[in-house]
Amino acid sequence: MNKVALVTGSSRGIGRLIAIRLAEQGYDIVVNFNRNRKKAEEVQAEIEALGRKCLIVKANVGDVTKIQELFATVASEFGRLDVFINNAASGVLKPVMELTEKHWDWTMSINAKSLLFAAQEAAKLMTRTEEGGAIVSLSSIGSMRVLENYTTVGVSKAAVEALTRYLGVELASEGIRVNAVSGGVVQTEALDHFPNREELLADAIKHTPMGRMVQAEDLVDAVMFLVSDQAKMICGQTLVIDGGRSLPVS
């Protein structure tokens, strides 16, 4: 039976690239989206062209009921889940003094709360097989560095990394590996929403020791490593892919 991978927020950006790379590695794919079905269908077509099965499921991962429905659909369609990529993210980019409770709740629900409840559902499916499974979340260096207008997202990503450690320990005995990939500034569609986009790009290029910005494919490579057997003893860790940008260089 083919292995199955679910990638949330995979109709575009890094999630799309991860879904396609997993399909290239032989996985059947569940593409999750919340708004743009047309984009999801384009990803589905790319995956099916690779000879893999692809299921599209619309779900807002900030809603626990929708998360449960998403995984119930996966169980009904495939009967198993081997890889879960927690990629979907959102956030309000404003200065601290302009944030409201609604901004906070929205960002934390989609970016952090979703991981807990999605991981619970993923684990139920992964324990159906002897192989266990792998869960990987996408984080960012905003979890440990203060970035302008990034408060809600940065705090939510810090929560993701902390939850990764707790899930990693508790699910290890079930043969489920839980880790995260934290990326530096990456030029994707999501970056277009930052009011200080140009400053972030200039800073990343100037201050990254490796001499270039992080590319989306760099993060995809890290995700693929963490879901592979080569990472079978990596548990509860956050792998930082930033070309050395976050190091305290004098």
TrEMBL record:
Keywords: Oxidoreductase. GO terms for molecular function: enoyl-[acyl-carrier-protein] reductase (NADPH) activity. The keyword Kinase does not apply. One of its GO terms (biological process) is bile acid metabolic process. It holds the Pfam family adh_short_C2. It is an enzyme of class 1 (oxidoreductase). It comes from the Bacteria. InterPro entries: NAD(P)-bd_dom_sf (IPR036291), SDR_fam (IPR002347). Its EC number is 1.3.1.10. Belongs to the short-chain dehydrogenases/reductases (SDR) family. This is Enoyl-(Acyl carrier protein) reductase. It comes from Brochothrix campestris FSL F6-1037.
